[in-house]
Amino acid sequence: MKHWLDIISEYGSPRTQIESDDGWLLEREDWPEDFQFFLSVMNGCNFEDEPSLNIRIPIPWNDRPYFDDQISCVYGQSPHSDDSSRGWLQSTDVSMPSNTVAIANFESSSLAVLSMRDHDFGAMYYWDWYHDYPWRGDFFKRRLKPVYKEFEDQLDEIFSVGDSHPQHAALNEAANDAMLVRLADSFESFISMIQIGHEE
User: Fold this and answer.
1) 75: which residues sit within 8 A by CB, 6+ positions away?
2) 37 — phi, psi (to 5°)?
3) For the ranges 5-9, 141-145, 147-151, which has the lowest average pLDDT?
4) Preceding amide of 51 cis, omega within 30
């Protein structure tokens, strides 16, 4: 098995326009150690189309309990601190839990998400661009079911009142968390999941 840094150095090329529309990160000093090391070595990278670099996603597809998604890039960070100019990553923040950051993109437009939360600091998740599409079946509905169960006594009222309801933020946070599918305990482990040239 290749070391995760070997995968990046062999198949990745530096991103030369980190302030482009396809995403970049705001600079911060509290990244997990392995991701901070990646940023110091290569501040973001694009991956080659050939050979395909796939990561196995534990979401059912057809008759299998998984599918493979091709990783396209890992974002670099910009020294600018203006959050309003962060490109399209800004629009995904509303559907991800607080203190999680999209740090990589897949060919499907899905995102790899890094947790900055205390309870799972450094863990990597998959945010599925197609979570609302019919071919995902009941997978995400099942993940949301316990969330709605927790709030069932107030659910209709929360939906009716909207974001001014005192429980709306808590419901939204819990639902967004349920939509993240855990991939790895760390960025290092996430990169090590890459299957080179393997696709089914």
Assistant:
1) 15, 18, 23, 24, 25, 44, 89, 102, 103, 104, 105
2) -65, -45
3) 5-9
4) yes
> For the purposes of burial, counting CB atoms within 10 Å of the CB of 142, is it exposed (0-12), middle (13-18) or buried (19 or more)?
exposed
Backbone φ, ψ for residue 60 (5° rounding): -60, 140
Over residues 136-145, the pLDDT tens digits come to 879 999 999 9
Q: How many residues make up the chain in this entry?
A: 200
Tell me which DSSP letter residue 140 carries.
H
pTM: 0.88
pLDDT in tens, 152-193: 899 999 989 988 999 999 999 999 999 999 999 999 999 999
Per-residue b or e along 15-30, where b marks 16 or more CB atoms closer than 10 Å to that residue's CB? beebeeeebbbeeeee
